[in-house]
Specification:
- By secondary structure, the chain is α/β, with parallel strands linked by helices.
- The protein has helices spanning about 15-20, 65-80, 85, 95-105, 115-130, 135-155, 165-180, 195-205, 215-225, 235-240, 260-270, 305-310, 315-340, 340-365, 375-400, 410-420; strands at about 5-10, 40-50, 55-60, 90-95, 185-190, 210-215, 230-235, 245-250, 275-280, 295-300.
- β2 and β3 (about 55-60) form a beta hairpin.
- The longest helix has 29 residues, at about 375-400.
């Protein structure tokens, strides 16, 4: 069975937020749910699900219709019709799949070019795949390489020279509407990474009064403490809405937490003072039905695109350099992948051994004087080559035996290439997971 790399997914370019929220995935186990199996068409998988994309990185049988299998699994898992999904997805194979993954890791495919969040999200997705036993030789190596590519792009270009994110764009939008944010109160619903970033940008924009509402009060207290804000329990959301001007919501709720019927009484008590909502959650936290109310202004994640476009101009030149790095690293990865076949590895082992033997032989011949006996040199050359082949005989025989075992060949060939450093490559330390399996 020939194995190929596939990447099947959708993102903010191919699907609106209404589709992305219906097909969002959280805590999906590709092994327990049957997508990945030792004897099935799919041998490895990693699922990345964020507010702007859902992508399946899959290693599977090149003779099977992997795209159809993934789409069927995806739709069934979400309880949605497959037909609603198909027209919004893309499928890349081989080097195009690798190129797409590296492009995503380097934040060249994000709504905000160069935003740093996607790398952390990729590390989380990879950790989940490792913990569930869905990541093996190819996915492991591929993600380590993706982290390395992202590091190169960050250090060798200025694409991320200024910190931007969806949260940053949300605050920029608020600044455009209110002009001066100094005298306005802000409310964060949710206390995750997006909320933390939003709080940072709100403070930079001049906001001094920040309230944090979260289902887990302890987390709200922790985040509020960082920014001299005020924590409130989720049960007091109604009261918090009475006192705020700007609401940024980013919870993980599967359903809307604010609807028009909730806001009517809030607006009455506010004496119809305007309130500005930015919903950066997927699925959406705030039902679009509140748009029918006077003095309520709602923007969701797709509305931020205009703000995002303004941040792109200064980064396009650096993006060109970054894409050059990605292309270089895609080539390096594909050469490694091609080397996982047994014959290229055997050839590489013998070439390495003979190269070492020739190098050491030249050192020894120099010790024989300026005019060594040609017959002795020929004997030494035969001896060096013979020793090389005998030393490598057992490792090569072992690889040949193991390559006959179903599902084992790539793992043993990969280990051999690493053991003998045939690819002459070192994966940066930060690319690896720690001993507990977590990302750094």
């Amino acid at each position: 069975m020939n194995q190929e790399i596939y990447l099947v997914g959708l993102n903010h370019k191919t699907a609106g937020v209404d589709i992305r929220e219906r097909f969002a995935l959280s805590d999906c186990d590709p092994v327990a749910t049957g997508l990945v199996g030792d004897t099935g068409a799919v041998s490895e998988a990693m699922i990345l699900s964020t507010c702007n994309r859902v992508e399946f990185l899959v290693v599977g049988d090149s003779d099977a219709d992997i795209r159809a299998r993934v789409l069927r699994f995806w739709a069934d898992h979400c309880g949605q019709p497959q037909g609603d999904l198909e027209n919004h997805t893309y499928c890349h194979t081989g080097d195009r799949a690798v190129d797409h993954l590296f492009t995503v890791a380097a934040s060249l495919d994000s709504m905000i070019l160069g935003e740093p969040q996607i790398l952390g999200q990729l590390k989380t997705a990879y950790r989940n795949a490792v913990e569930k036993g869905a990541a093996k030789v190819i996915v492991n190596r591929l993600l380590h390489k993706a982290f390395s590519v992202a590091k190169r792009v960050r250090t060798e270009t200025a694409i991320a020279s200024s910190a931007v994110s969806i949260s940053y764009a949300a605050v920029e939008l608020a600044r455009k509407i209110f002009s001066d944010l100094t005298n306005h109160r802000a409310l964060l619903i949710g206390a995750g990474e997006m909320a933390e970033l939003a709080a940072t940008h709100l403070l930079s924009a001049g906001v001094r009064d920040i309230t944090v509402v979260n289902r887990t009060l302890a987390r709200a207290e922790e985040l509020a403490r960082q920014f001299n804000g005020r924590p409130m329990p989720f049960e007091d959301l109604h009261q918090a809405l009475l006192e705020t001007d700007i609401v940024i919501s980013s919870t993980g709720s599967p359903t809307a937490i604010i609807r028009a019927k909730d806001m009517k009484e809030v607006l009455r008590q506010r004496r119809n003072r305007p309130i500005f909502f930015i919903d950066i959650a997927v699925p959406r936290d705030i039902d679009p039905d509140i748009n029918v109310l006077d003095n309520v202004y709602l923007y969701d994640i797709d509305d931020l695109k205009e703000v995002v476009e303004e941040n792109l101009a200064g980064r396009q030149q650096e993006a060109g350099k970054a894409r050059g790095i990605v292309a270089e690293e895609v080539g390096a990865f594909m050469r490694w992948r091609d080397g996982l076949a047994l014959q290229p590895t055997i050839v590489a082992l013998l070439d390495q051994g003979e190269r070492i033997a020739r190098k050491e032989l030249r050192k020894s011949i120099k010790q024989l004087g300026p005019d060594p006996d040609p017959q002795m040199v020929a004997v030494l050359e035969r001896l060096a080559k013979s020793l090389c082949h005998k030393i490598y005989h057992e490792p090569i025989s072992y690889l040949k035996r193991r390559s006959q075992e179903e599902g084992s060949a790539q793992r043993f060939i990969h280990n051999a290439r690493r053991m003998f450093n045939l690819d002459e490559e070192t994966v940066p330390e930060e690319a690896h997971l720690d001993r507990k399996g977590g990302g750094q």
